[in-house]
UniProtKB/TrEMBL annotation:
Domain ANTAR: 162-223
Keywords noted in UniProt: Kinase, Transcription, Transcription regulation, Transferase
UniProt cross-references to SUPFAM superfamilies, sorted A to Z: CheY-like, GAF domain-like
One Pfam family of this chain: ANTAR
SMART domains: ANTAR (SM01012)
Gene Ontology MF: a single term: RNA binding
Record has Transferase as a keyword: yes
Name of the protein described by the UniProt record: ANTAR domain-containing protein
Length: 230
């Protein structure tokens, strides 16, 4: 089995195990995957995912506080390697942050606030208006080589696969939960007004439209009113 196939098999197996556990949220699952990635990329000590959305820049699945601090710096400076990797769709490597000239505001703050000196960032995916980059960090200079880039690219591709699988699973579970809630609310209306299931659903739909509220939220409120806390 090739190294790439081995990594792919290992990550998919890990995703499958996380899905079977059921109680693991997306953030926790990605952090566990990132920990495996950091252990596999030559030279890496820490890792994290930079999410760039309309609401701002956030850090997901950081294996150390440094990843979060560096994203905070990028948010304040509006520049940095992770942002460039996410925006420009390529891989960025910093061999020595102290001599880096591309992002001076980021560089100065990163040196002042963290011991990180080597950075490598890979663009992950675009989901709607959101962009993401997978980042690895180290405290020594010049630790990332061509092998680091090659292995990092593999894990970036596989992290995207894992993200899509887990998002799909999360959406599926949410859809099932919403269906159950709507079913309970329909039951409440059917019993209260002596109507059938179709009429109950139509009543929920009209309430949703009139209040400009999601159907599942209307259903949850109706259930709460019918079963007030003791």
């Amino acid at each position: 089995m090739s190294v790439e196939r081995e990594h792919m098999y290992s990550m998919l197996q890990q995703v499958n195990e996380l899905q079977q556990r059921g109680d693991v949220d997306l953030e926790t699952a990605l952090r566990e995957i990132n920990a495996s990635s950091v252990a596999s990329v030559p030279g890496a000590r820490y890792g994290g995912i930079t999410m760039v959305e309309e609401a701002g820049i956030n850090t997901l699945a950081a294996t150390h506080d440094y990843a979060t601090v560096l994203d905070d710096i990028q948010r304040d400076a509006n520049e940095g390697p992770c942002l460039s990797a996410a925006w420009d769709q390529h891989t960025i490597r910093i061999d020595d942050l102290a001599s880096e000239t591309r992002w001076p505001r980021y560089r100065d703050a990163a040196i002042e606030r963290t011991p990180v000196r080597s950075v490598i960032s890979f663009r992950l995916f675009q989901e709607g208006s959101a962009l993401a980059a997978l980042n690895f960090y180290a405290e020594s200079e010049g630790v990332f080589d061509e092998e680091s880039v090659e292995v990092g690219l593999i894990f970036a591709a596989h992290t995207t696969v894992a993200w899509n699988l887990m998002r799909r699973e999360h959406q599926f579970r949410s859809a099932l939960a919403s269906r159950d809630v709507i079913g309970q609310a329909k039951g409440v209306l059917m019993e209260r007004f002596s109507i059938d299931a179709a009429a109950a659903f139509e009543l929920l739909r009209k309430l949703s439209q009139q209040s400009n509220t999601k159907l599942v939220d209307v259903a949850e409120r109706l259930i709460a009113l019918d079963h007030p806390p003791q």
